[in-house]
Amino acid sequence: MAPVTHLTLIIAVFITGVTAYTNHTVGGKAGWLFDPNTNTSSADYAAWTANQTFELGDYLIFNTNTNQTVILTYNETTYRSCSIDNSSDTDTFSYSQGNQEFGQPLTVAVPLTIEGPNYFFSDASDGVQCLNGLAFGINVTHGVGLPPSLNQPPPPPYVEPPTNGVGSVTPVDESSGANVRGVVCYALMFCGVFCLFLV
Ligand SMILES: *[C@@H]1O[C@H](CO)[C@@H](O)[C@H](O)[C@H]1NC(C)=O
Ligand SMILES: *[C@@H]1O[C@H](CO)[C@@H](O)[C@H](O)[C@H]1NC(C)=O
Ligand SMILES: *[C@@H]1O[C@H](CO)[C@@H](O)[C@H](O)[C@H]1NC(C)=O
Ligand SMILES: *[C@@H]1O[C@H](CO)[C@@H](O)[C@H](O)[C@H]1NC(C)=O
Ligand SMILES: *[C@@H]1O[C@H](CO)[C@@H](O)[C@H](O)[C@H]1NC(C)=O
Ligand SMILES: *[C@@H]1O[C@H](CO)[C@@H](O)[C@H](O)[C@H]1NC(C)=O
Ligand SMILES: *[C@@H]1O[C@H](CO)[C@@H](O)[C@H](O)[C@H]1NC(C)=O
């Protein structure tokens, strides 16, 4: 490999690293809005998704107001129903809780953290917005994977607390290792008390 090729490779890796994650502004300039007078959404979201790729760690930025909601679901049935009525907390998430006042400007940033089909819709106006176009699905691919900031480590495995500690009256099988440790423990305790007397 010529040195120039190496350099090109390094530069390519550098650029890829810098631009690894993308913020996608949903609907572009048109945003995430619905006009109840014409029953139309502000953008054609299927067309908007068509020529871009969505990868783990990217964000979808919804420029909207509190007349619309932002629901993320991984469940196609929930998506098709335009409602969260029968949805599960484990596969469907609302990003619009809190503000009860109509028409307040709102920006919602949704990180893409699960590969495969991700569906978005507004469940406002009893599903009318969703039924009339305020909805879309994307396929999230792996890309370079989640950044550490979005990659929650799994909780440590559950460890059974010791049952043969000092003061415990739990009967233990004579042959068990736990009991041997208990004996050693008591021996050390006794030694400690004994040594105290020697001082
Ligand atoms: C993308 O959006 C997230 C969430 O709002 C933000 O923390 C991050 O700085 C944005 N990245 C860029 C490159 O704009
Ligand atoms: C797709 O990308 C092309 C070129 O980047 C752009 O001109 C076009 O408007 C895009 N289409 C949509 C629906 O965003
Ligand atoms: C998807 O959601 C529907 C309710 O909207 C529920 O009946 C169904 O069990 C869910 N599917 C999965 C795979 O969890
Ligand atoms: C939720 O489930 C009930 C009972 O099965 C059903 O009548 C209703 O249509 C469902 N709602 C939606 C939005 O799927
Ligand atoms: C939001 O909805 C309320 C009630 O339907 C309406 O009066 C208001 O004009 C809407 N605001 C915007 C910014 O769409
Ligand atoms: C909007 O669509 C809903 C059904 O999706 C309908 O009930 C309502 O009358 C429509 N409103 C207008 C202004 O067309
Ligand atoms: C999503 O993209 C992956 C990788 O390109 C592909 O294997 C998979 O079939 C796609 N899934 C859907 C539902 O389009």
From TrEMBL:
<dbReference type="GO" id="GO:0009055">
    <property type="term" value="F:electron transfer activity"/>
</dbReference>
<dbReference type="InterPro" id="IPR039391">
    <property type="entry name" value="Phytocyanin-like"/>
</dbReference>
<dbReference type="GO" id="GO:0005886">
    <property type="term" value="C:plasma membrane"/>
</dbReference>
<feature type="domain" description="Phytocyanin">
    <location>
        <begin position="22"/>
        <end position="142"/>
    </location>
</feature>
<keyword id="KW-0732">Signal</keyword>
<dbReference type="InterPro" id="IPR008972">
    <property type="entry name" value="Cupredoxin"/>
</dbReference>
<dbReference type="InterPro" id="IPR003245">
    <property type="entry name" value="Phytocyanin_dom"/>
</dbReference>
<protein>
    <recommendedName>
        <fullName>Phytocyanin domain-containing protein</fullName>
    </recommendedName>
</protein>
<dbReference type="Pfam" id="PF02298">
    <property type="entry name" value="Cu_bind_like"/>
</dbReference>
<feature type="signal peptide">
    <location>
        <begin position="1"/>
        <end position="20"/>
    </location>
</feature>
